[in-house]
Protein backbone atom coordinates (compact mmCIF):
# COMPACT_ATOMS: atom_id res chain seq x y z
CA UNK A 1 0.00 0.00 0.00
CA UNK A 2 1.28 3.46 -0.86
CA UNK A 3 1.57 5.52 2.33
CA UNK A 4 0.98 9.28 2.31
CA UNK A 5 4.07 10.07 4.39
CA UNK A 6 6.53 11.74 2.02
CA UNK A 7 8.94 10.39 -0.48
CA UNK A 8 10.61 7.83 1.79
CA UNK A 9 7.68 5.47 1.46
CA UNK A 10 7.16 5.96 -2.29
CA UNK A 11 7.75 2.84 -4.37
CA UNK A 12 11.42 2.54 -5.31
CA UNK A 13 12.85 0.50 -8.13
CA UNK A 14 13.27 -3.18 -7.26
CA UNK A 15 16.31 -3.78 -5.09
CA UNK A 16 17.42 -7.22 -3.92
CA UNK A 17 17.21 -6.10 -0.30
CA UNK A 18 14.29 -3.68 -0.55
CA UNK A 19 10.54 -4.15 -0.16
CA UNK A 20 10.07 -5.41 -3.72
CA UNK A 21 13.06 -7.74 -3.45
CA UNK A 22 11.68 -9.22 -0.24
CA UNK A 23 8.19 -9.67 -1.73
CA UNK A 24 9.70 -11.38 -4.78
CA UNK A 25 11.64 -13.71 -2.48
CA UNK A 26 8.49 -14.50 -0.49
CA UNK A 27 6.57 -15.13 -3.73
CA UNK A 28 9.22 -17.63 -4.88
CA UNK A 29 9.63 -19.35 -1.51
CA UNK A 30 5.90 -19.70 -0.91
CA UNK A 31 4.85 -20.71 -4.44
CA UNK A 32 1.71 -22.81 -4.12
CA UNK A 33 -0.31 -25.17 -6.24
CA UNK A 34 -3.31 -25.15 -3.89
CA UNK A 35 -6.58 -25.38 -5.81
CA UNK A 36 -8.19 -23.12 -3.20
CA UNK A 37 -5.90 -20.22 -4.23
CA UNK A 38 -6.87 -19.13 -7.75
CA UNK A 39 -4.53 -16.11 -7.56
CA UNK A 40 -1.88 -15.63 -4.88
CA UNK A 41 0.95 -13.13 -4.31
CA UNK A 42 1.46 -10.62 -7.12
CA UNK A 43 -1.78 -8.73 -7.71
CA UNK A 44 -3.77 -6.23 -5.67
CA UNK A 45 -5.90 -8.98 -4.12
CA UNK A 46 -5.72 -12.73 -3.88
CA UNK A 47 -8.60 -14.76 -5.32
CA UNK A 48 -9.69 -17.71 -3.18
CA UNK A 49 -12.01 -20.59 -3.99
CA UNK A 50 -13.56 -21.98 -0.80
CA UNK A 51 -14.81 -25.57 -1.11
CA UNK A 52 -18.48 -25.86 -2.10
CA UNK A 53 -20.94 -26.20 0.78
CA UNK A 54 -18.52 -24.52 3.19
CA UNK A 55 -18.52 -21.32 5.16
CA UNK A 56 -15.44 -19.10 5.30
CA UNK A 57 -13.75 -18.45 8.66
CA UNK A 58 -11.36 -15.56 9.22
CA UNK A 59 -9.00 -14.82 12.10
CA UNK A 60 -6.24 -12.29 12.62
CA UNK A 61 -3.43 -12.20 15.20
CA UNK A 62 -0.64 -9.77 16.03
CA UNK A 63 2.94 -10.81 16.75
CA UNK A 64 4.58 -7.73 18.28
CA UNK A 65 8.19 -7.42 19.34
CA UNK A 66 8.40 -6.73 23.08
CA UNK A 67 4.87 -8.06 23.59
CA UNK A 68 4.84 -11.54 22.06
CA UNK A 69 8.57 -12.11 21.60
CA UNK A 70 11.96 -10.59 22.32
CA UNK A 71 14.62 -10.34 19.67
CA UNK A 72 17.31 -11.06 22.29
CA UNK A 73 15.74 -14.27 23.57
CA UNK A 74 13.63 -15.86 20.79
CA UNK A 75 15.23 -17.50 17.75
CA UNK A 76 13.74 -15.96 14.57
CA UNK A 77 12.50 -19.39 13.40
CA UNK A 78 10.41 -19.56 16.56
CA UNK A 79 8.97 -16.07 15.95
CA UNK A 80 7.91 -17.07 12.41
CA UNK A 81 6.52 -20.41 13.60
CA UNK A 82 4.52 -18.84 16.42
CA UNK A 83 3.23 -16.06 14.18
CA UNK A 84 1.50 -18.63 11.96
CA UNK A 85 0.69 -21.02 14.82
CA UNK A 86 -1.43 -18.36 16.54
CA UNK A 87 -3.74 -18.06 13.53
CA UNK A 88 -3.82 -21.79 12.80
CA UNK A 89 -4.75 -22.51 16.42
CA UNK A 90 -7.82 -20.26 16.07
CA UNK A 91 -8.89 -22.23 12.98
CA UNK A 92 -8.27 -25.49 14.87
CA UNK A 93 -10.46 -24.27 17.72
CA UNK A 94 -13.40 -23.92 15.32
CA UNK A 95 -12.78 -27.21 13.52
CA UNK A 96 -11.85 -25.35 10.32
CA UNK A 97 -9.49 -26.35 7.50
CA UNK A 98 -6.98 -23.65 6.46
CA UNK A 99 -7.37 -22.15 2.96
CA UNK A 100 -4.68 -19.44 2.99
CA UNK A 101 -2.62 -17.12 5.18
CA UNK A 102 -1.88 -13.39 4.69
CA UNK A 103 1.01 -11.68 6.44
CA UNK A 104 1.35 -7.95 7.09
CA UNK A 105 4.88 -7.27 8.20
CA UNK A 106 6.56 -4.08 9.42
CA UNK A 107 10.35 -4.40 9.69
CA UNK A 108 13.02 -1.97 10.89
CA UNK A 109 15.15 -0.86 7.93
CA UNK A 110 18.11 -2.72 9.48
CA UNK A 111 16.30 -6.02 8.88
CA UNK A 112 16.86 -5.63 5.15
CA UNK A 113 19.81 -3.23 4.99
CA UNK A 114 22.23 -5.11 7.26
CA UNK A 115 23.52 -8.65 7.00
CA UNK A 116 22.50 -9.70 10.56
CA UNK A 117 19.02 -8.27 9.94
CA UNK A 118 18.69 -10.11 6.63
CA UNK A 119 19.67 -13.36 8.34
CA UNK A 120 16.98 -12.72 10.97
CA UNK A 121 14.36 -12.03 8.30
CA UNK A 122 15.31 -15.15 6.34
CA UNK A 123 15.14 -17.33 9.45
CA UNK A 124 11.77 -15.81 10.42
CA UNK A 125 10.36 -16.86 7.05
CA UNK A 126 12.01 -20.30 7.30
CA UNK A 127 10.19 -20.89 10.60
CA UNK A 128 6.89 -19.69 9.18
CA UNK A 129 7.32 -21.73 5.99
CA UNK A 130 8.17 -24.98 7.79
CA UNK A 131 4.86 -24.85 9.68
CA UNK A 132 2.95 -23.69 6.57
CA UNK A 133 4.28 -26.69 4.63
CA UNK A 134 3.47 -29.08 7.46
CA UNK A 135 -0.19 -28.04 7.27
CA UNK A 136 -0.30 -27.23 3.52
CA UNK A 137 -1.22 -23.59 4.14
CA UNK A 138 -0.43 -21.29 1.20
CA UNK A 139 0.76 -17.74 1.94
CA UNK A 140 -1.46 -15.89 -0.55
CA UNK A 141 -0.59 -12.26 0.18
CA UNK A 142 0.20 -9.61 2.72
CA UNK A 143 1.80 -6.22 3.08
CA UNK A 144 5.36 -5.16 3.76
CA UNK A 145 6.38 -1.89 5.34
CA UNK A 146 9.36 -0.26 7.02
CA UNK A 147 8.58 0.32 10.68
CA UNK A 148 9.37 3.81 11.98
CA UNK A 149 11.95 4.51 14.68
CA UNK A 150 15.36 3.98 13.11
CA UNK A 151 17.59 1.71 15.22
CA UNK A 152 14.93 1.33 17.92
CA UNK A 153 12.20 0.39 15.39
CA UNK A 154 10.23 -2.76 16.23
CA UNK A 155 9.25 -5.86 14.28
CA UNK A 156 5.48 -6.07 13.96
CA UNK A 157 3.60 -8.84 12.19
CA UNK A 158 -0.09 -9.45 11.69
CA UNK A 159 -1.23 -12.79 10.35
CA UNK A 160 -4.64 -13.38 8.80
CA UNK A 161 -5.86 -16.94 8.37
CA UNK A 162 -8.73 -17.89 6.11
CA UNK A 163 -10.30 -21.30 6.65
CA UNK A 164 -13.41 -23.26 5.76
CA UNK A 165 -15.86 -25.51 7.57
CA UNK A 166 -19.00 -27.29 6.32
CA UNK A 167 -22.02 -24.98 6.56
CA UNK A 168 -23.26 -24.73 10.15
CA UNK A 169 -20.64 -27.14 11.51
CA UNK A 170 -17.91 -24.81 12.83
CA UNK A 171 -17.27 -25.36 16.54
CA UNK A 172 -18.15 -22.42 18.77
CA UNK A 173 -17.69 -21.46 22.41
CA UNK A 174 -21.41 -21.21 23.00
CA UNK A 175 -22.86 -24.71 22.56
CA UNK A 176 -22.02 -26.44 25.86
CA UNK A 177 -24.63 -27.56 28.42
CA UNK A 178 -24.61 -28.38 32.15
CA UNK A 179 -23.45 -31.98 32.63
CA UNK A 180 -21.03 -31.90 29.68
CA UNK A 181 -17.51 -33.13 30.40
CA UNK A 182 -14.52 -30.82 29.82
CA UNK A 183 -11.42 -32.00 27.96
CA UNK A 184 -8.05 -30.59 26.99
CA UNK A 185 -5.63 -31.78 24.33
CA UNK A 186 -1.95 -32.35 25.08
CA UNK A 187 -0.37 -31.00 28.23
CA UNK A 188 -0.58 -27.76 30.17
CA UNK A 189 1.91 -25.27 31.56
CA UNK A 190 4.82 -26.23 29.30
CA UNK A 191 4.87 -22.95 27.36
CA UNK A 192 4.97 -20.81 30.51
CA UNK A 193 7.71 -22.98 32.01
CA UNK A 194 9.86 -22.86 28.87
CA UNK A 195 9.40 -19.09 28.51
CA UNK A 196 10.47 -18.53 32.13
CA UNK A 197 13.65 -20.52 31.48
CA UNK A 198 14.35 -18.61 28.25
CA UNK A 199 13.95 -15.21 29.88
CA UNK A 200 16.35 -16.17 32.68
CA UNK A 201 19.11 -16.80 30.12
CA UNK A 202 21.25 -13.84 29.20
CA UNK A 203 21.52 -14.81 25.54
CA UNK A 204 19.11 -15.78 22.80
CA UNK A 205 18.06 -19.43 23.04
CA UNK A 206 19.87 -21.29 20.25
CA UNK A 207 17.66 -22.73 17.56
CA UNK A 208 17.80 -26.49 17.92
CA UNK A 209 17.04 -27.65 14.38
CA UNK A 210 16.41 -31.23 15.41
CA UNK A 211 13.67 -30.56 17.95
CA UNK A 212 10.75 -28.38 16.92
CA UNK A 213 7.92 -30.19 18.64
CA UNK A 214 5.47 -29.07 21.31
CA UNK A 215 6.91 -31.79 23.56
CA UNK A 216 10.45 -30.38 23.35
CA UNK A 217 9.62 -26.68 22.90
CA UNK A 218 6.06 -25.92 24.03
CA UNK A 219 6.71 -22.17 23.97
CA UNK A 220 8.99 -21.82 20.94
CA UNK A 221 7.36 -24.33 18.59
CA UNK A 222 3.75 -25.01 19.66
CA UNK A 223 1.83 -27.36 17.40
CA UNK A 224 -1.62 -26.02 16.46
CA UNK A 225 -4.15 -28.82 16.94
CA UNK A 226 -5.72 -28.62 13.47
CA UNK A 227 -6.25 -32.37 13.06
CA UNK A 228 -7.95 -32.65 16.47
CA UNK A 229 -10.23 -29.67 15.75
CA UNK A 230 -11.20 -31.06 12.36
CA UNK A 231 -11.87 -34.53 13.80
CA UNK A 232 -14.05 -33.07 16.58
CA UNK A 233 -15.99 -31.07 13.99
CA UNK A 234 -16.35 -33.93 11.47
CA UNK A 235 -17.43 -36.47 14.06
CA UNK A 236 -19.74 -34.02 15.87
CA UNK A 237 -18.08 -34.80 19.20
CA UNK A 238 -17.75 -31.35 20.80
CA UNK A 239 -20.57 -29.10 21.97
CA UNK A 240 -18.15 -26.17 22.44
CA UNK A 241 -14.47 -25.61 21.75
CA UNK A 242 -11.78 -22.93 21.92
CA UNK A 243 -8.02 -22.73 22.11
CA UNK A 244 -6.35 -21.89 25.39
CA UNK A 245 -3.75 -19.46 24.11
CA UNK A 246 -4.57 -16.98 26.90
CA UNK A 247 -4.42 -19.63 29.67
CA UNK A 248 -6.90 -22.32 30.75
CA UNK A 249 -8.56 -20.22 33.47
CA UNK A 250 -9.12 -17.20 31.20
CA UNK A 251 -10.33 -19.20 28.21
CA UNK A 252 -12.55 -21.49 30.29
CA UNK A 253 -14.28 -18.36 31.59
CA UNK A 254 -15.00 -17.43 27.93
CA UNK A 255 -16.56 -20.86 27.32
CA UNK A 256 -18.62 -20.64 30.53
CA UNK A 257 -19.94 -17.16 29.72
CA UNK A 258 -20.68 -17.98 26.08
CA UNK A 259 -22.47 -21.22 26.98
CA UNK A 260 -24.19 -19.89 30.13
CA UNK A 261 -22.74 -22.57 32.43
CA UNK A 262 -20.43 -22.94 35.43
CA UNK A 263 -17.40 -25.24 35.48
CA UNK A 264 -15.65 -27.44 38.00
CA UNK A 265 -12.02 -28.36 37.29
CA UNK A 266 -10.42 -31.35 39.02
CA UNK A 267 -6.91 -30.34 40.02
CA UNK A 268 -5.62 -33.92 40.07
CA UNK A 269 -6.78 -34.52 36.50
CA UNK A 270 -4.77 -31.68 34.95
CA UNK A 271 -2.14 -33.06 32.53
CA UNK A 272 0.94 -31.12 33.60
CA UNK A 273 3.69 -30.76 30.97
CA UNK A 274 7.00 -32.26 32.20
CA UNK A 275 8.65 -28.78 31.99
CA UNK A 276 6.06 -27.40 34.42
CA UNK A 277 6.36 -30.62 36.46
CA UNK A 278 9.94 -29.61 37.31
CA UNK A 279 8.64 -26.54 39.17
CA UNK A 280 7.39 -26.75 42.76
CA UNK A 281 3.78 -27.93 43.03
CA UNK A 282 2.08 -24.50 43.41
CA UNK A 283 4.12 -23.05 40.51
CA UNK A 284 3.30 -26.06 38.31
CA UNK A 285 -0.41 -25.69 39.08
CA UNK A 286 -0.22 -21.96 38.37
CA UNK A 287 1.51 -22.57 35.01
CA UNK A 288 -1.13 -25.15 34.01
CA UNK A 289 -4.12 -23.01 35.03
CA UNK A 290 -2.97 -19.53 34.09
CA UNK A 291 0.27 -19.86 32.09
CA UNK A 292 -1.09 -19.32 28.60
CA UNK A 293 0.32 -19.91 25.11
CA UNK A 294 -0.07 -23.67 25.32
CA UNK A 295 -2.14 -23.58 22.08
CA UNK A 296 -4.06 -26.65 23.17
CA UNK A 297 -7.82 -27.06 22.67
CA UNK A 298 -10.37 -26.97 25.49
CA UNK A 299 -13.68 -28.54 24.58
CA UNK A 300 -16.90 -29.83 26.05
CA UNK A 301 -18.63 -33.08 25.10
CA UNK A 302 -21.76 -34.77 26.49
CA UNK A 303 -20.81 -37.12 29.38
CA UNK A 304 -22.63 -39.93 27.58
CA UNK A 305 -20.14 -39.78 24.68
CA UNK A 306 -17.12 -42.03 25.24
CA UNK A 307 -14.14 -40.22 23.83
CA UNK A 308 -10.94 -42.02 22.83
CA UNK A 309 -7.83 -41.43 24.96
CA UNK A 310 -6.26 -39.69 21.97
CA UNK A 311 -7.46 -38.08 18.75
CA UNK A 312 -5.24 -37.57 15.67
CA UNK A 313 -2.34 -38.81 17.83
CA UNK A 314 -2.87 -36.14 20.52
CA UNK A 315 -3.81 -37.22 24.07
CA UNK A 316 -7.21 -36.08 25.37
CA UNK A 317 -7.72 -35.61 29.11
CA UNK A 318 -10.98 -35.12 30.93
CA UNK A 319 -10.33 -32.28 33.40
CA UNK A 320 -13.75 -31.43 34.78
CA UNK A 321 -17.48 -31.00 34.34
CA UNK A 322 -19.86 -28.20 33.43
CA UNK A 323 -22.60 -27.28 35.89
CA UNK A 324 -25.80 -25.30 35.74
CA UNK A 325 -25.51 -21.58 36.46
CA UNK A 326 -26.56 -20.84 40.04
CA UNK A 327 -26.94 -17.43 41.61
CA UNK A 328 -24.18 -16.80 44.15
CA UNK A 329 -21.99 -19.65 42.83
CA UNK A 330 -18.65 -18.83 41.20
CA UNK A 331 -18.34 -19.24 37.45
CA UNK A 332 -15.45 -21.67 37.90
CA UNK A 333 -14.29 -23.79 40.84
CA UNK A 334 -11.20 -25.92 41.47
CA UNK A 335 -11.67 -29.25 43.20
CA UNK A 336 -8.50 -29.97 45.23
CA UNK A 337 -7.25 -33.53 45.94
CA UNK A 338 -8.56 -33.22 49.55
CA UNK A 339 -12.09 -32.66 48.22
CA UNK A 340 -12.23 -28.93 49.01
CA UNK A 341 -13.56 -26.42 46.47
CA UNK A 342 -12.08 -22.99 45.82
CA UNK A 343 -13.12 -20.34 43.35
CA UNK A 344 -11.01 -20.36 40.18
CA UNK A 345 -10.55 -16.83 38.90
CA UNK A 346 -9.35 -16.02 35.38
CA UNK A 347 -5.62 -15.47 35.84
CA UNK A 348 -4.29 -15.80 32.30
CA UNK A 349 -3.36 -13.15 29.81
CA UNK A 350 -5.50 -10.08 29.21
CA UNK A 351 -4.23 -6.99 27.41
CA UNK A 352 -4.82 -3.61 29.11
CA UNK A 353 -5.47 -5.39 32.44
CA UNK A 354 -2.25 -4.17 34.10
CA UNK A 355 -1.88 -0.62 35.43
CA UNK A 356 0.27 1.60 33.24
CA UNK A 357 3.61 2.31 34.92
CA UNK A 358 4.35 6.02 35.25
CA UNK A 359 7.96 6.84 34.41
CA UNK A 360 9.87 8.51 37.25
CA UNK A 361 10.73 11.46 35.05
CA UNK A 362 7.86 12.25 32.71
CA UNK A 363 9.09 12.58 29.12
CA UNK A 364 9.26 16.17 27.97
P1 LIG B 1 -0.18 -3.03 -3.11
O1 LIG B 1 0.67 -1.80 -3.02
O2 LIG B 1 -1.06 -3.08 -4.28
O3 LIG B 1 -0.85 -3.35 -1.80
P2 LIG B 1 2.14 -4.57 -2.58
O4 LIG B 1 3.30 -4.07 -3.33
O5 LIG B 1 2.00 -4.22 -1.13
O6 LIG B 1 0.83 -4.26 -3.38
O7 LIG B 1 2.12 -6.15 -2.66
C1 LIG B 1 2.34 -6.82 -3.88
C2 LIG B 1 1.92 -8.27 -3.72
O8 LIG B 1 2.74 -8.88 -2.75
C3 LIG B 1 0.49 -8.43 -3.23
O9 LIG B 1 -0.06 -9.55 -3.88
C4 LIG B 1 0.65 -8.69 -1.76
O10 LIG B 1 -0.41 -9.47 -1.27
C5 LIG B 1 1.98 -9.42 -1.70
N1 LIG B 1 2.70 -9.18 -0.43
C6 LIG B 1 3.20 -8.02 0.02
N2 LIG B 1 3.81 -8.18 1.21
C7 LIG B 1 3.69 -9.49 1.53
C8 LIG B 1 4.09 -10.28 2.65
N3 LIG B 1 4.73 -9.78 3.70
N4 LIG B 1 3.78 -11.59 2.63
C9 LIG B 1 3.11 -12.12 1.58
N5 LIG B 1 2.72 -11.43 0.50
C10 LIG B 1 2.99 -10.13 0.47
MG1 LIG C 1 0.38 -3.76 -0.13
From TrEMBL:
Mg(2+) 1 binds at residues 60-61, 143. Pfam families: AIRS, AIRS_C. ATP binds at residues 142-143, 173, 245. Residues 204-223, 337-364 are annotated as: Disordered. Pathway: Cofactor biosynthesis; thiamine diphosphate biosynthesis; thiamine diphosphate from thiamine phosphate: step 1/1. Mg(2+) 3 binds at residues 44, 90, 243. Keywords: ATP-binding, Kinase, Magnesium, Metal-binding, Nucleotide-binding, Thiamine biosynthesis, Transferase. Mg(2+) 4 binds at residues 44, 59, 90. CDD domains: ThiL (cd02194). One of its GO terms (biological process) is thiamine biosynthetic process. The keyword ATP-binding applies. Substrate binds at residues 68, 293, 349. Its EC number is 2.7.4.16. It catalyses: thiamine phosphate + ATP = thiamine diphosphate + ADP. Residues 42-151 form the PurM-like N-terminal domain. It comes from the Bacteria. Belongs to the thiamine-monophosphate kinase family. NCBIfam families: thiL (TIGR01379). Reaction mechanism of ThiL seems to utilize a direct, inline transfer of the gamma-phosphate of ATP to TMP rather than a phosphorylated enzyme intermediate. This is Thiamine-monophosphate kinase.
